[in-house]
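Notes from the pairing session

We agreed to fold both candidates in a single pass and log them together. This is the raw record for the first candidate, unedited. Please don't reformat it; downstream parsing expects exactly this layout.

Candidate A
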Amino acid sequence: MRIMGLDFGSKTVGVAVSDSLLLTAQGLEIIRRKDENKLRQTLARIEELIVEHEVSEIVLGLPRNMNGTEGIRVELTNEFKDKLERRTGLPIVMWDERLTTVAADRTMMEAGVRREHRKEYVDKIAATLILQGYLDRKRMLENE
């Protein structure tokens, strides 16, 4: 079984999945949303990926403000979480995603990805960083 990482945004959802040993996260794809208020196609695609990759758990990025407060994006992400839970029946772990987009952007800059092309990849990389952080923490707790 694998774990899926999601970076939920108003226009896109970045998707990553772990390897079967739960050691590393790999970016999978970016689901593009046609309408911010409609999630049916997004949820259907996530379900397809869950089946395809034998996912048993989901880690969803929680977009807190830098000072730790929760704004409208947290509220929308929690609504998405509820819909995803009802639809998949899988456990969903919320993971603090502060600075993952910044880290993703920095990673692409260091790799020489041109500024105009970064938007194409940032959500998938952010999902990978969210999932990798969770996998690392999980492994650390298991080794204590």
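Candidate B (folded immediately after A)
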Amino acid sequence: MRALIQRVARASVTVEGEVIGEIDQGLLILICAMQGDTEAQSEQLAAKISKLRIFKDEAGKMNRSLKDIGGSALIVSQFTLAADTSRGNRPGFSTAARPDEGERLYLDFADRVAGLGIPVATGKFGADMAVDLLNDGPVTIWMDTE
């Protein structure tokens, strides 16, 4: 699985003019299931992200995790993280999981993050979403289970 995480002061996702998910301080997690991914990758990524020490401590150093600060996660599916730009000018997405498998693993990932005691809001798989965020730092990290 692939994830792009952004430390945020706040974030929300809107579908058809309605805010369907929003958080205050925490992480915006854009997530993509790749071909061959299983629940094992979902579990591994959820555990790693929940423990990443990327929030400031009292000394201003990135030394606290999402769990440490009591933050939330806004999890949004984003198959375009599978983009292959090696040929031509139009990205290819053939390495992304099939939509049914991608949705299943997206929901599994969100459930696993929530199961770690982190409040979770989500987007809507396959929908045309507008994501609004106030990046904190900015801190943006690319993660891949491969």
